[in-house]
Amino acid sequence: MARLRTLVAGTAGILLASALAGETLAQAPTPARGGTMNIIISPEPPTLMLGINQTTPAAIVGGKIYESLLRYDLDLKPMPGLAKSWTVSPDGKTYTFKLQEGVKWHDGKPFTADDVVFSAKTYLTTTHPRSRPIFQRAEEISAPDPLTVVFKLKGPFAPFIMAWEPSTAPIVPKHIYEGTDFRANPANAKPIGTGPFKLKEWVRGSHIHLVRNDDYWQKGKPYLDDIYYRVLPDASARVVAMETGQTHLSAFADIETFEVPRLKAMPHLEMTTKGYEYLAQMVWLDFNLRKPPFDDRRFRQAVYHAIDRNFLRDRVWFGLGKLATGPIHSSIPHYDANVPEYPFDPKKAEALLDEMGLKRGSDGVRARVTMDQLPYGDVYVRAGEYIRQALGRVGIQVSLRSADVATWGDRVRNWDYDMTLQVLSQLGHPALGVSRLYISSNIRKGVLFSNVNGYTNPRIDELFDKAAVAADPKQSQAMYSEIQRILVGDVPVAWLLELEFPTFVDKRFRNVVTSAIGVRDGFADVYMQR
Amino acid sequence: MTEFWRRYRRNKGAVAGLVVLALILLVAALGPLAWPGSPWDMAGVPFQPPFSAEHPLGTDTLGRDVATGIVHGARVSLLIGFVATLAALGVGVVVGAVAGYFGGRVDDVAMRLTEFFQTIPSFVFAVVLVAIFTPGIGSIVAAIATVSWPAVARLVRGEFLTLRTREFVQASVVLGRSARHIIFVEILPNAISPIIVSGSLMVATAILVESSLSFLGLGDPNMMSWGYMIGASRSVVRLAWWCSFFPGLAILLTVLALNLVGEGLSDALNPRLSREGR
User: Fold this and answer.
1) A123, A285, B75, B268: which could join A494 in a potential S-S bond, CB 3.0 to 4.6 Å?
2) pTM for this one?
3) What is the ipTM, given to two decimal places?
4) What is the rounded CA–CA span in Å between residue A434 and residue B27?
């Protein structure tokens, strides 16, 4: 019966789609008002208040409610958001933002420069672990008039311009939060933002209903009437929802990699891997440099040479990824492709191991190491199994150790591991998402996603410090290029792949992915074609 | 012995089960000679359908040969099944015998203990144990033994309760034999038939539990097992049915064979019971 219903729904969907296709030919695609979009959300976000929670599901829904000063195009160039225009002083220390006129909070109160000052100076430095170090670089934040905000920094800090997206720097209403306990404020459950959509209803475990903000500052936008975020924890239910047209948008890991080819072939869906440029996730093989034989660079290079990353991309990630060349993701500013290369070359790997004096024993084994499996799902388990076999072929015997997420995290942050896969976002700028992994001042036992492998290189420390504060972009580029050449030569970790995520959109919906934060953006421009 | 075999033979299913089990044991013992190399090795192109000369049962997501996996998995599944059962029998027999023979306080304490273990759903308990102690062959055997000894203990206790009132036991007591001697030399041999029967069924259960644990990703990550093979390829079942079908078939055949053999043993060891049953 269920099958029959699916079939009927599917047929109706196809008929509808072809009817729409006919209409598309007849008229030019001008944005039309109206329409409801159903979007998959998984897992359910704990809250929509982006100031206190920045997990991906919270950012996806919260990004429609809260806004920041800027947006970023697909090349990570800043575009106007709540700020209409901005200037940076020649010494790189003063940032002046001119705000949009006629912006109102969802409760009808006007939005002013005071809200921005309060958010950056008081609110985010209290609640937001990631933006605290950014805004603490400001010596003075002031509002000379209601539509102007001036940030005077202690020194130049070029990444400052990359911090203005809704999950890094959401602008929150001063009149609601000032003088309250930010985490316990009742408005966290009824979020008040400036964004194109407002929260209407949230039925836990079922859906989150957003409605159009009729007073939105971009006149005539947004186009959609409603957005329903459907909570679908089951992976196969998510695929069926996309297949049958019950939902119109899926992103990140909603659809498992092996289902991608099938959904890609569906006529009513369109796939894109754009919209993840700001996050820029990279997966790498982390070595604990405190432990032999990982303390020898030749060993790490041998491991890098022994892994066929094309196989990983094509067979484990089903083609969703690009080979990483070094510590910086290719969509992130200051990326430099001109670095030493480590092609798949088991012979070279064996030569390096021989040179180290690690000869094969009578059982063919040169060295024995343990690898902790990254417990983020099947894909990472398969990747670990592949790496074990690949290293086994050059005489490095790997035994796998599996654990739950909490245990894995404990082992890695307390440096109790030999080797493990890791995956992390780079957040728009090397100074925000990359330097934390390699600078020696960030070797902090007990902190995950710090420099856990214990890489120490005074030259790298110095370059990262200077590159972030250099006022001249050419100078900082030269330093970031040098960083990449040194790190790739040293191989403190083996960078494997830049991950791509499939975003599936129902073809009737247009302008869905228009910026570097993709589906986490406000959706003011999204419209439904009829 | 011939009498035993004659009675066993009467159950056609049990004979078939024995043949299948012997075949599986043969595969586990000699198979790795015919399929040398690691079952984890990427032996060919991924997703090759079965029934080709090179890969008779096809290859999986990473191009690992399914036939090699099944042959090597047989060793792991049978090893875990037998070792875990022996461990559970060891604990269960001792606890049950002591409780049944001494009775009174000792019995109370032992039975409350078994009840404590029996009230926890056994599979969930096994999952928790394996998750706490890092998944590995040792922790899996220990977990299966821990959740399966109480049933043996209760069975053995029941046998001991009836046997200890018999004349030969009382004669031993009068002769001044030690309790240990009476329990292990006098009573236990007389209680062995139900233990053997339930033991053979426990091997089947242990194999199923191990498969379920591996299916959930709690198997030994360095040992190829049937449950792991199914778990690893359940996501691609629409693409490549053979990756999960053949290991599933292997589990089905093994467990069925063990059950048939158990039934046959029960018939052969309890002749009166079997004739009344039919």
Assistant:
1) A285
2) 0.85
3) 0.85
4) 52
